[in-house]
Amino acid sequence: MMSTDWNPLLRAEFDKPYWHALQSFVASEREQHAVYPAHADVFAALHHTPFADTKVVVLGQDPYHGPRQAHGLCFSVQRGVATPPSLANIFKELQADVGMPIPSHGNLARWAQRGVLLLNTTLTVRAAQAGSHQGKGWETFTDEVIRVANSKPFVVFVLWGAQARKKKSLIDVSRHAVVESAHPSPLSAHQGFTGSRPFSQINAALRAAGLSDIDWALD
């Protein structure tokens, strides 16, 4: 199912009762409704960013629930799809922070390939119904992904918004860096995301730990 170096680190989860119940639930949902992302993209974050290469973890919540948007990376949309409002605010902050031009598309796969794990805490959603797959077991699995990432010597964890910040309890903050603020959603960006300069904070923390910067360019 997951042909990445995350697989042996997470394999014990696949034998637990919650996992079987979760997979049955998702399969049933797919039989009756449109579910995003496509089955092949559910674990895209773990495929794009191997454990060995993970330097940054960005936590999202739900996949996007509109057609053709979600493809398994939090905040990211497929090329040719309009940039959602939260991602538009992320791009505005990227420009203000490090002078990067606003990207021409919203596909963040290049960040993922450079060591930024773009992890939603819930990995599937029913079309047009935000939050519809929350509380079904995905959070148990993604909490374990966070714990495994926490086992590395150093990672920058990026927690945007109240839901992501709840995961701070899973992180050894004495060893890792945490970049946190309000969520980039238009409803909350003005409460502390705008002007927070997360991208330069991330790279400063990586440099301080003796690791290379993330190249944030997407075009």
Task: Summarize the SSE layout with pairings.
Layout lengths: L6 H4 L6 H16 L2 E2 L7 H5 L7 E5 L24 H14 L10 H5 L2 E5 L4 E2 L11 H13 L5 E5 L1 H4 L11 E5 L16 H11 L11
Parallel strand pairs: 2-3, 2-5, 5-6
Antiparallel strand pairs: 1-4
Briefly say what this structure is:
Helices cover 33% and strands 11% of the residues.
Characterise this structure.
By secondary structure, the protein is of the alpha/beta class. It contains eight helices and six strands. Strand 5 (156-160), helix 7 (162-165) and strand 6 form a beta-alpha-beta unit. It starts with 6 loop residues before the first helix and ends in an 11-residue tail after the last helix. The mean pLDDT is 97.
Q: What does the largest sheet look like? A: 4 strands, parallel
Tell me the total number of β-strands.
6
Structure classification:
alpha/beta
Annotation field: number of helices: 8
Shape: globular
Report the C-alpha radius of gyration, rounded: 17 Å
Strand-residue proportion: 5-15%
Report the helical percentage: 25-40%
Q: Give the termini separation.
A: 31 Å
Keywords:
219 residues; alpha/beta; 4-stranded parallel β-sheet; two-stranded antiparallel sheet; 6 strands; 11% strand; globular
